[in-house]
Specification:
This protein has 89 residues and is of the alpha+beta class. It folds into 2 domains: 34 residues, no CATH class; 40 residues. The chain contains 4 helices and 3 strands, in the order E-H-H-E-E-H-H. The chain has a 3-stranded mixed sheet with strand order 1-2-3. A hairpin with a 2-residue loop joins strand 2 and strand 3. It is elongated. The mean pLDDT is 85.
C-alpha cells in the first residue's frame, strides 16, 4: 500500500480529507517521519449498508396497493403509540 508523505502543517490543514481517504499518510517534521496516520473505514461503510437495507425494504413495499400501504401505516401508528418511550424523549 502506497503511503503519502506530508508535512505536519499540511496534515493539520487537510485533516478532513485525510480522514475521508483510504490511504495511509506519513506525517513528517523537517523531512523526518514522526507518525503514520491510517484512516479506518467505519461510519461511512455502516451508512452505506444501512442505505442498501433501506433500499431493499423500499423495493419490497413499492408494489403494494394503496389499501396495503394504508394498512401498514395504520399498523405503524398503532405500534408507535403502544411502544415504550425511551428515556430523554
Amino acid at each position: 500500500m502506497e503511503t503519502t508523505k506530508v508535512g505536519i502543517r499540511e496534515f493539520r490543514a487537510g485533516l478532513a480529507e485525510y480522514i475521508a481517504s483510504d490511504k495511509p499518510v506519513a506525517v513528517t517534521r523537517h523531512g523526518q517521519t514522526v507518525g503514520i496516520f491510517i484512516p479506518t473505514p467505519g461510519a461511512l461503510q455502516a451508512d452505506l449498508l444501512a442505505l442498501a437495507q433501506a433500499s431493499a425494504k423500499l423495493k419490497a413495499v413499492m408494489p403494494l396497493s394503496e389499501v396495503e400501504v394504508d394498512a401498514l401505516v395504520a399498523d405503524f401508528k398503532t405500534e408507535r403509540r403502544v411502544a415504550p418511550r425511551r428515556k430523554g424523549r
